[in-house]
Amino acid sequence: MFESLTGRLEGIFKKLTGRGGLTEQLVGETLEEIRVALLEADVSLDVVKSFTEGLSARLVGQAQKSGLTGAQQVIAEVYQEMVHILGDHRATIALASKPPTIIFMMGLQGSGKTTTAAKLALHFKGQNRRVLLVASDLARLAAIDQLKVLGEQIGVPVLLPPDGTTRPSDLYPLVKRRVIEGMYEVVIVDTAGRLTVDSALMGELKELRRLYSPKECLLVVDAMQGQEAVGVAKTFDAEIGVDGVVFTKLDGDTRGGAVLSIRQVLKKPIKFVGMGEKLDRLEAFFPDRMASRIIG
Ligand code: GDP
């Protein structure tokens, strides 16, 4: 994860070691190197700007702290700024005061939406909650089978569309009935994806949102995708409304741009990260732990 950014930052910090106290020139040079490293990691321009400005405000004119070398002082401030752009605090899914808590999984095809729906179902099952998965991605028949298989693997029931169902909204009355019968506390709806954002998809999601009134609309984003993923997220948020983001495939080596940009651009928290294909590889997102991992 973030190997090249971590490597770049380590190089910058290493160069600082042995250069004594924090002179204005040294701070200036370091800020410039960090700026370039972030741009190369594909972090959005505005976020890079706010990061280096925040860092500059902390470092410029800062007296040398006793017991800390200049390098240690810079690392501490980069860490703080990184925690800040990642969202400062952990954001969780708040369950509805009156069950069921309905969660929409949204995202483009291939983002890992269906897998993440099952991972989240397992997460809630682990909290001893009664969970129902809903296969509402009628655009991709394989997605229905995939969710059925995943549900069987984790022992969570999946509401499947009856043969001949063409409109996802037709599933809603069945979901309502099943929730009452099964006293489900958490309902996770795997909504349709597409290869790109289009108006038909947005229209479908808007209609479903109106019908279900979900407590959480989670956007699943492939961390390998870079800046274009941030653009897609902005469209989902403007059209449907996004309550939180789940980044998938963080077990792979991503440049990190989308992960570092999305909180500031979207003003919505990252809630979970996918760390592998297996269904237990979903982790809560902690900005401080992620910042430590990135800094190395
Ligand atoms: P969907 O089209 O958005 O529903 O995507 P899928 O759930 O079918 O996932 C697409 C591919 O990404 C599958 O091969 C998944 O196993 C894989 N995938 C999903 N999440 C992760 C993850 O966190 N790490 C890795 N390495 N692969 C993942």
UniProtKB/TrEMBL annotation:
Binding site for GTP: 107-114, 190-194, 248-251
Domain notes per entry: Composed of three domains: the N-terminal N domain, which is responsible for interactions with the ribosome, the central G domain, which binds GTP, and the C-terminal M domain, which binds the RNA and the signal sequence of the RNC.
Localization terms from the record: Cytoplasm
Organism: Leptospirillum ferrodiazotrophum
Protein name: Signal recognition particle protein
Alphabetical UniProt keywords: Cytoplasm, GTP-binding, Hydrolase, Nucleotide-binding, Ribonucleoprotein, RNA-binding, Signal recognition particle
Catalytic activity: GTP + H2O = GDP + phosphate + H(+)
Residue stretches making up the SRP54-type proteins GTP-binding domain: 269-282
Record note on quaternary structure: Part of the signal recognition particle protein translocation system, which is composed of SRP and FtsY.
Family the UniProt entry places it in: Belongs to the GTP-binding SRP family. SRP54 subfamily.
Its biological purpose: Involved in targeting and insertion of nascent membrane proteins into the cytoplasmic membrane. Binds to the hydrophobic signal sequence of the ribosome-nascent chain (RNC) as it emerges from the ribosomes. The SRP-RNC complex is then targeted to the cytoplasmic membrane where it interacts with the SRP receptor FtsY.
GO molecular function: 7S RNA binding; GTP binding; GTPase activity
Domain of life: Bacteria
Gene Ontology annotations of biological process type: SRP-dependent cotranslational protein targeting to membrane
EC number: 3.6.5.4
Residues of the full protein shown: 1 to 296 of 444
Gene Ontology, cellular component aspect: signal recognition particle
